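Example 3.2
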Amino acid sequence: MKHGSTPNAGGKVCVCGRIIGILYPELKQIRADQQEILNYILEKQQAEIEYCSAEQAMDRIGISQSTLLRCQRRGEITVAKFIERKKYFRDRDVERLRREYRGRE
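Structure, written as tokens:
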């Protein structure tokens, strides 16, 4: 018997073809639901992250703009996002860099 959804010489459809025909829409829906759940989780994580501007970061750490840029070039801190051409850093990254520069005050 040939596999697939086309009838064979006896006019019967292969069992595998029928099973695939039944399961495929269900699997497709499960995959769509899985993607929706993943997107929801990622949105929640993004909403929980606190950001501060470059100016706030410099003030909090106690460094100049040139020092902040130097730290970026060395990979000590990375820009998390840009909004209207302004840099924003993750709050936890700023705090980590502050501790490196100023100790655990």
